[in-house]
Amino acid sequence: MLDKESEDVASLLSTLDKYKSIYLEPTHPVAFKLPKVDHSIEDQWILAKIIQSINSDINQYKVQDVEPSEDGGPGQVWQTDLKSIIALPVHSKSTFKSSTLVLGLYPDTTSFYRATVIQPPDTVANRTTYLLRFEDDDAPFQTVSPEYVISLPNGTN
């Protein structure tokens, strides 16, 4: 019975997180799907932050690349809608199970890539990070903080 109640609570918390992310505050970190500039098949996701909602519309935002431009100025800014944004959790409570396909922030970059969970965080083992195996990466695994591991969006190439 306790497992069922725990699942129900987890589901409710997940739903509340989704509703909280409907309006994204300025500076909130997001994964942003870059507009396609060529006929590439693969979606490209980067780490960005919300700059502002457009005309107080909760579906339209300006987002900014967290990586500075080549001249050292602020990162590029795009106008987008919620279809191209995934709000990153401030304190991730989600735990993806082993073998789950996710998007993860590749270490030392600002790009998200498809990856498979090798091991989720484990409080018993005192490990607070995910072990991910990124597609097209020769490394057996990479460690990634939970706030940078998100569900693979439907229809992601």
TrEMBL record:
<protein>
    <recommendedName>
        <fullName>SGF29 C-terminal domain-containing protein</fullName>
    </recommendedName>
</protein>
<keyword id="KW-0804">Transcription</keyword>
<dbReference type="InterPro" id="IPR010750">
    <property type="entry name" value="SGF29_tudor-like_dom"/>
</dbReference>
<dbReference type="InterPro" id="IPR037802">
    <property type="entry name" value="SGF29"/>
</dbReference>
<dbReference type="InterPro" id="IPR047287">
    <property type="entry name" value="Tudor_SGF29_rpt2"/>
</dbReference>
<keyword id="KW-0539">Nucleus</keyword>
<dbReference type="GO" id="GO:0000124">
    <property type="term" value="C:SAGA complex"/>
</dbReference>
<dbReference type="InterPro" id="IPR047288">
    <property type="entry name" value="Tudor_SGF29_rpt1"/>
</dbReference>
<feature type="domain" description="SGF29 C-terminal">
    <location>
        <begin position="20"/>
        <end position="157"/>
    </location>
</feature>
<dbReference type="GO" id="GO:0005634">
    <property type="term" value="C:nucleus"/>
</dbReference>
<dbReference type="Pfam" id="PF07039">
    <property type="entry name" value="SGF29_Tudor"/>
</dbReference>
<keyword id="KW-0805">Transcription regulation</keyword>
